[in-house]
Write a structure and sequence with these properties.
Layout: H1 2-32, H2 42-63, E1 76-80, H3 81-86, E2 107-112, E3 117-125, E4 128-137, E5 147-148, H4 167-175, H5 177-181, H6 187-195, H7 197-205, E6 211-219, E7 222-223, E8 230-233, E9 248-285, E10 289-292, E11 297-300, E12 305-313, E13 323-330, H8 332-335, E14 345-351, E15 354-357, H9 360-363, E16 370-404, E17 407-409, E18 412-419, H10 424-427, E19 431-438
Antiparallel strand pairs: 1-2, 2-3, 3-4, 4-5, 6-18, 6-19, 7-17, 8-16, 9-16, 10-11, 11-15, 12-14, 13-14
């Protein structure tokens, strides 16, 4: 026995020692082995940001058709990400963290240069913001009005692109210039057109001067808080219109079966009641009052008092010496049109404390002042009582409710001129109108 206990203790110690060694080994492994840095995921995040930039770029190129291109050198047109979403040029996208990008600080702008267009695609997502520049022009390999310049392309672009739907007019001048060029080979006209591009180049420097761009921002109308709802009865031809405007709302609540008034109605109630049949002479204690029936004398010990006991039905219970039922009304919802001659009545009970004596000798048991009295003798009979009650009547009533508020300030649009390079207003939700002017 002792040897087995020592073996069990030795096995437990070995197990604990091995467990400690395993824990030490795992801690050393964590400390010595280098673990991958989470920054290695940054390239994937950068790919998401770059993909969003490319999406905005492609959407911007497709948007800028001939009629939407800036007309003069130095003119610039800006398209915010919010407007691109409103125009369904692209679908909403998220940043690397799954959050939506800034729809006002993110934009695509297109500026007309001397021989090309320069597109800037700016994207701001959270704390990260960057942009790319894209050179666009009208080249022979373009399938749209303008396209992106290919790397190493030596072909000169024109900033007055021709839409693809005008190839026919270009063929007509091709046949006409042949005879026109023959009679006018003189170099003078040739020199004149050569001089003409020079003035064209001169204005290109003018737009580089500081210009102002017009921005606008729409402000919604301002209203007071809505008033509380008021409930009203809808009457025929009352002119009420169910509507919802900026300052008034009228809602139809439909019809309700509701109580609209009362009327006095006489009802006949049949019930058993007690009545005096005659008198008996008994010896009684002068400290109390007494009543009697054919077999018993009742000593009255208290006054009548209501108890929480009710009766509802067509046949009210009979009164007794110690209990009586007081008429409370008629339940018209139960008896309907028969309430006047066969009412469904409601009674409430009153009780009092009594002591019954069937033996004359018991009357003198606890009383020192005894005398002989003529006590009324009561019996029970059925009577019909006439009660006047108020009968409620109901009808279907149509209701509506109204609430109002006050216009505090009309909606308006604010316009401001700022430096075209200043994007502060654009970042605050202002929209570029496309208009520019010199300072």
């Amino acid at each position: 026995m002792y040897t087995e206990e020592r073996k069990k203790g030795s096995l437990l110690k070995d197990f604990i020692l091995k467990l400690i060694l395993i824990i030490i080994f795992v801690l050393l492994l964590i400390w010595l082995v280098p673990w991958p840095n989470m920054d290695s995921l940054n390239p994937l995040k950068d790919q998401i940001f770059n993909a969003n930039l490319q999406t905005m770029k492609e959407a911007g190129i497709s948007y800028f058709t001939t009629e939407r291109l800036p007309e003069k050198v130095g003119d610039k047109t800006t398209l915010t990400l919010q407007k691109m979403l409103d125009l369904k040029l692209l679908v909403p996208f998220t940043d690397k963290n799954g959050d939506s990008c800034d729809v006002t600080a993110s934009y695509v702008s297109l500026e007309k240069k001397d021989t090309e267009y320069l597109m800037k695609v700016n994207l701001k997502c959270g704390e990260e913001e960057d942009y790319i520049l894209v050179h666009l022009g009208c080249y022979s390999y373009c399938t749209t009005d303008i396209c992106e310049a290919k790397p190493g392309n030596t072909e000169k672009s024109t900033t007055t692109p021709k839409p693809t739907n005008k190839p026919t007019p270009s063929q007509k001048p091709t046949s006409s210039p042949t005879p026109t060029t023959s009679p006018k080979p003189t170099p003078t006209p040739t020199a004149t057109p050569t001089v003409t591009p020079t003035p064209t180049t001169t204005p290109t420097a003018t737009p580089k001067e500081d210009k102002l761009c017009e921005y606008k921002k729409d402000y919604s109308a301002q209203y007071s808080n809505w008033s509380a709802w008021t409930k009203n009865v809808k009457k025929t031809n009352d002119g009420v219109v169910f509507e919802k405007t900026n300052t008034k709302e009228v809602e139809d609540l439909g019809t309700e079966y509701t109580r609209v008034g009362v009327q006095n109605v006489n009802v006949q109630v049949t019930k058993p009641v007690t009545y005096q049949m005659g008198t008996y002479k008994y010896k009684v204690c002068t400290s109390y009052t007494y009543e009697a029936d054919a077999t018993t004398v009742y000593q009255i010990n208290s006054d009548w008092a209501y108890v929480d006991n009710w009766y509802s039905g067509y046949n009210p219970p009979a009164d007794t010496v110690s209990s009586r039922w007081i008429f409370q009304g008629v339940d018209f919802s139960q008896c309907g049109e028969t309430c006047t001659d066969h009412p469904y009545v409601v009674y409430r009970q009153q009780t009092r404390q009594v002591t019954a004596y069937t033996d004359y000798s018991n009357v003198t048991a606890n009383c020192t002042n005894i005398e002989e009295r003529s006590i009324p003798l009561y019996g029970t009979r059925i009577i019909s009582e006439l009660h006047t009650v108020q009968k409620p009547y109901y009808a279907y009533v149509r209701y509506y409710r109204v609430r109002t508020r006050t216009l505090l300030k009309d909606a308006y649009t604010d316009y401001q001129w700022v430096d075209c390079d200043d994007k502060t207003l654009a970042n605050q939700g202002w929209t570029y109108t496309g208009k520019t002017k010199n300072k």
